Structure formats: structure tokens, C-alpha cells
Amino acid sequence: MTRPLPGELIDFHGMVSRSPRMREFFALVERVARTDSSILIRGETGTGKELVARAIHDLSPRARGPFRAVNCATFTPELLASELFGHVRGAFTGAVRDRRGLFSVADKGTLFLDEVSEIPLDIQARLLRVLQEQTFVPVGGTDPIHVDVRVISATNRALRRDVEEGRFRADLMYRIRVVPIFLPPLAEREGDVEALAWHFVDEFNARGGRRITQIHPRALDAMLAYRWPGNVRELRNAVEHAWAVGVGEALRLDDLPPELRGEDPPDSARPATAVDDERDRIRQALRVARGRKGEAAAALGMSRSTLWRKMRELGL
Ligand SMILES: Nc1ncnc2c1ncn2[C@@H]1O[C@H](COP(=O)(O)OP(=O)(O)OP(=O)(O)O)[C@@H](O)[C@H]1O
Ligand SMILES: [Mg+2]
Fold first, then answer.
1. pTM beyond 0.85, yes or no
2. Which of 258, 36, 73, 47 is nearest to 151 (CA)?
3. Domains contained in the chain, CATH given
């Protein structure tokens, strides 16, 4: 297949799409960005939640202020508290000097809390206080600090369920999701698999060494039929894989990763062992990457933080 005509292709702050559903989503993002409300972005892994958070910041009155992002799943509870609120010298072993937390650093700007559902309960209480009173006390400190920060959070799970199960404070949930927005999975964005495949082909072509000008119909069919559990990140990885292993001007089915060629049945086909399969897949990827998590995550089509969380959940 040669490239479809550009048509309605949109590039919204780095998010490329031609789907009407995403156009509506971008319009919503533009509207909510103007306000100072707390926003919760819901969406599966790899759907672009961090890009959305940045877009909101850039479109907001705070655009000239700082934007900081933190992944709440990648810290131990002690380190997360110090990351967010800072600490004073001597607060704990290793705290050899005062350190500013992200709430101070992001003053007059925006703080993006990724995987917000992973915040432990005691830190949730402190977070609630910042959101209510815009003040916090650094770890080990006594004097409250006043800041002006807009919080954007993201999660790929239903916070309400965490609230029901006692893992997440209801009052905090209401504070952070004043405006919840839902980022659709890639498979539900009409026309986007093809549009994004070309977008990433262009990106890799620009690196030089190979120039793809066609996507073979069978390769395109496989991409259109695939469920894309890792969403846009996985699609980008699949195109990079094909670009790297193939030769010539066409992106071919044989060059796509095995799961797209139907060699691995999708997880949904074997629900009873989905967890074991996931564990095996992660183990295998870590082996191939010789323990390097960034590489393993890329091979699995997930972010480092998602890999991190899954390893924890699966006891790896
Ligand atoms: N619509 C899009 N157009 C182009 N690139 C995109 C788009 N959406 C996401 N990406 C790219 O896909 C990757 C994943 O996006 P991002 O990190 O924002 O996802 P995420 O939802 O935060 O994922 P996770 O839940 O795993 O943290 C990034 O490299 C991002 O630049
Ligand atoms: Mg993210």
C-alpha cells in the first residue's frame, strides 16, 4: 500500500491522529487546559497520557511556568515522599543535605503524577493537603511551604475500584479527578493504525540507512487486525522492528514482530493462564535484554514504569 492522502491528519502537540474520536478528545483537552482544575487522564499503557499532560500544560495559563512529571510507581514510599515534598538534612539515613521536592520545583507550573493509583495511603494524606491548602511540610521538616501548583494525574486503572478496596482515599480521588478525561485505546481510533504507522516510518526513514515507501497489504492487514495492548508505543516499536530487520522499500509482514504475525495467540485466547504467560513474557524479555529494564520494556511494548509495576505485581 502506498501512503494514503494526508486528508484530515492532525498533529496536536506531537499527538498524531486522523480519527474523529481523537479530534473530539483534542478539543476537550483544549477546553480543560484553560482552567486550573485538577485533571485525571485515564487510558491504557502507551496511549499517550504523558503527551496529553504536557499539551494541557502548554495550552494553560501556566505554560511559562515549569512542567514536571513523576512516575509514582517507580519509587519506594520513603523516596516518593521525599521526591514530592523534599526533605531536610538528617530526615533519614542518606539525607545529607536539604532537598527541594517536585511540588517546590513545579511552583507556578504543573506537576504530572503518573500512575497515581500507586501512591501509598500515608502519602495520599499529604497529597490531599497540598491540593486543599497548597501547603506541605518537607520530610523531617516542621515549617509548611506554600506553593501554587496545578496537578494532572494519570492512571490506567479504575480508581473507584481502588477506593472500594480501601487502597485509595475517596476524598483524594474526588480532588484529583475534578475533570476526568479518557484517552481511547489505539484500536478504537479509526484510521490511526495506518496513519501512525506512516508517521513512524517517516521518523525512522529520517534516520537514514533505509527508506520505506510502501507498506505491503498483508503487513497492513496484520496491523489493522492486531489488538495493540501496548497501544501507540507498541506500534512505534513494531515499525522500528520492521524497519530494522527488513530490506528494500516495502514494509513486509515477515518483518513485523511475531505477535503481529499471529505466532503468539493473543492473551485473551487463554485467560486461565494469562498471568503466567505475562510472567513468562517478562522473564524472557529480561533475559534477552540481560536484565536491562529499559530494553526489556521496549521489547515488550511497555514503558519502564509499566514493566516495573508489573514485575512488582507478578512478584518478579
Ligand atoms: N498520537 C500519538 N502520535 C505520535 N506519538 C505518540 C502518540 N501517542 C503516543 N505517542 C508516543 O508513544 C509513546 C508512549 O506515549 P506516552 O509515554 O505518553 O504514553 P503513556 O500513556 O504515558 O504510557 P504509560 O501508561 O506506559 O506510561 C511515546 O513515545 C509517545 O511519544
Ligand atoms: Mg506514562
1. no
2. 36
3. 20-182 (3.40.50.300), 190-313 (1.10.8.60)
